[in-house]
Amino acid sequence: MEFTFQIPTKIIVGEDCVKKNASLLSSFGKRAVIVKSGSAGKNGALSDLCAALEQEDVCYHVCENVPPNPSPEDVAKLLGYAPNFDFIVTVGGGSAMDAAKGVAVLATNDMPAEGLYEKSYQNAPLPVIAIPTTCGTGSEVTAVSVLTVGETKKSFAKPELFPAVALLDAKYLKTLPDHVMIDTALDALAHCVEGYLIFESWATQMLAEEAFRNFAQYKEALKACKFTPEQLQLMLYTSTLGGIVISMAGTSAVHTIGYPLTVQKDIPHGRACALTLGRYVEFVYDANKEKVDKLCSLLQVDGVQGFIGMIDEILGEKPRVTKEELERFTEISAADAIRKKNAKPVTKADIMKIYLASLLG
């Protein structure tokens, strides 16, 4: 067994942790950039952050709202080259946090947006502090940013893109729309399932199995869309566990074949992954029976079919797609999905079968 476990992000969990750690924010400098989602002003996170910065006499610039599934060009428009700032604070879900990592790079490097995908940067990115307000992305503890490029999504990753600090306060989840709560919670589940099945280490196994136990405690709440404060805390915690898992293990073909569903059909990322997750697990079962059986047991479902049924029940109605669209999505995603680390080798024909069983079965 060989693996590297590097999670340099300082994770702080608890109610009002943003306000309580104002001095920690100011330790990064006196000039901040805030990169946020549109919901940051509704859930109280932005006002808490601004109050904490003002308490410490930190000047800040608030960028325009990050659009869903931003492109490198969208990221460049948020701030551009701005070397006079000291640090970035990002408030929101995956789109905001992934965009913030790009903003951190472009603020210190005078280069076009496509330069984000260079192998190295001349100047180190600005440090990033992450305040997640959904329960799925895990980007607050990864060194990866995933942006929309053409017909799909493309990631860039550097160790220096790990956020320096993640501040986790579950009260910011209270205003999430039901469908966002479901989609992001399933995204976290996908992270844990994929990493668990494709990577061998005591760390990923321990963290993913903890996440499965947690998910079992709130899966019925997801179906009913009624959550206690304790369940919200558990969901946010589980999302971060999922981020650590994929930080070590990466993701599988599930994520890759989900990207065209998001870019071409405007299906939210977490939902796009969840739509094919069950059939992917079914596809790899013969290659990893012990782990699949274990995850089903921890999730308290009856085998693979119970796993598929659980996801279908939480998702509800599936999107309308045609066979011709799925053939095109297979063409778009196949090469990258095949190159991914998977629980067993996957072919272009396998991808089409997973699409068909998941969306037209």
Task: Explain the overall architecture.
This protein is of the alpha/beta class and 361 residues long. The model has no long low-confidence stretch (mean pLDDT 97). Helix content is 52%, strand content 11%. It has 2 domains: 10-172, 3-Layer(aba) Sandwich (Rossmann fold), CATH 3.40.50; 177-360, Dehydroquinate synthase-like - alpha domain (Dehydroquinate synthase-like, alpha domain), CATH 1.20.1090. It contains 14 helices and 8 strands. The radius of gyration is 20 Å and the shape is globular. β4 (87-92), α5 (94-108) and β5 form a beta-alpha-beta unit. A 6-stranded parallel sheet has the order 1-8-5-4-2-3, sandwiched between helices. α6 packs parallel to α8 (229-249).
Question: What key attributes describe this structure?
Answer:
Dehydroquinate synthase-like, alpha domain; two-stranded antiparallel sheet; about 350 residues; single chain; 6-stranded parallel sheet; Rossmann fold
Instruction: Tell me the number of strands.
Output: 8
Q: Give the class-level CATH name of the largest domain.
A: Mainly Alpha
CATH fold-level assignment of the largest domain:
Dehydroquinate synthase-like, alpha domain
Considering DSSP H and I runs of 4 or more, what fraction of the residues is helical? 40-55%
Strand order, largest beta sheet = 1-8-5-4-2-3
**Could you say how many structural domains there are in total?**
2
Which parts are unreliable, with pLDDT below 50 for 5 consecutive residues or more?
A: none
Quickly give the structural class. alpha/beta
CATH superfamily of the largest domain: Dehydroquinate synthase-like - alpha domain
